[in-house]
Specification:
alpha/beta, 5-stranded parallel beta sheet, 41% helix, 8 helices, 226 residues, 23% strand, Arc Repressor Mutant, subunit A, Rossmann fold, 4-stranded antiparallel beta sheet
């Protein structure tokens, strides 16, 4: 049974999330502040962290930084509807997805399932090579010019989708589908943030992308070898 750590200081919201996740078959642990959340991430090693950004003792964005310092556990952030900048920063720091408050409990479960699916599905024994980028699907390992690059599961799957067909333009909706996200239009903008993150990690100069090209008004493509 997979375990979800719910980090939420509002008891009512934590209870709703816990109840629906347990009904969906997950084991659920709850933490009401950043300190106890980080302790549980280290000791209990949950399969996914559902993280409210508005915690009483520490900014949730700092929690993401701390977790990403030593773990690749999938993170889904909970944010208020008006906190778009926090959602973007959260994704840039390594969160895999977000759910906006007030949320539909069924949507919350769907998002958690989708993130876990792309993080833990057994990968086929396949290696994708595009230029000097190599993606080992079985090991979830990415290398660029023989340099290992640490990607979140979402970033890895997006890079796989693009590198499979160099030169082919993929829309944001197609990229969402490729990582098995739930196809809500409001999440398409999250693709831009993930792409920015990937570029920061793999591009020699993210301001002049060599690997992932933007096709304005359409989407993205992996550059073909010259």
């Amino acid at each position: 049974m997979r375990t979800v750590l719910v980090v939420e200081d509002e008891p009512k919201i934590a209870r709703v999330a816990r109840d629906y996740l347990e009904r969906a078959g997950f084991a659920v642990a709850v933490a009401g502040d950043a300190r106890s959340a980080l302790a549980q991430v280290r000791s209990a090693k949950p399969d996914l962290v559902l993280l409210d950004l508005g915690l009483p003792d520490q900014d949730g964005l700092d929690v993401i930084r701390s977790v990403r310092g030593g773990s690749r556990v999938p993170i889904v952030v909970l944010t208020a509807r008006g906190d778009e900048s926090d959602r973007v920063v959260g994704l840039e720091l390594g969160a895999d997805d977000y759910v906006v408050k007030p949320f539909s409990p069924k949507e919350l479960v769907a998002r958690v399932r989708a993130v876990l699916r792309r993080a833990t599905d057994e990968a086929p024994r396949e290696v994708i090579r595009a230029g000097d980028v190599t993606l080992d699907l079985a090991k979830l390992r990415a290398t660029v010019a023989e340099r290992v690059v640490e990607l979140t599961s979402t970033e890895f799957q997006l890079l796989v989708a693009l590198a499979r067909s160099p030169g082919r333009v993929l829309t944001r909706a197609q990229l969402l589908d490729a990582v098995r996200g739930v196809a809500f239009e409001s999440y398409e903008r999250a693709i831009d943030t993930h792409i920015k993150n990937i570029r920061r990690k793999i591009e020699p100069d993210p301001r002049k992308p060599r690997y992932i090209e933007t096709v304005y008004g359409v989407g993205y493509r992996f550059a073909e070898d010259e």
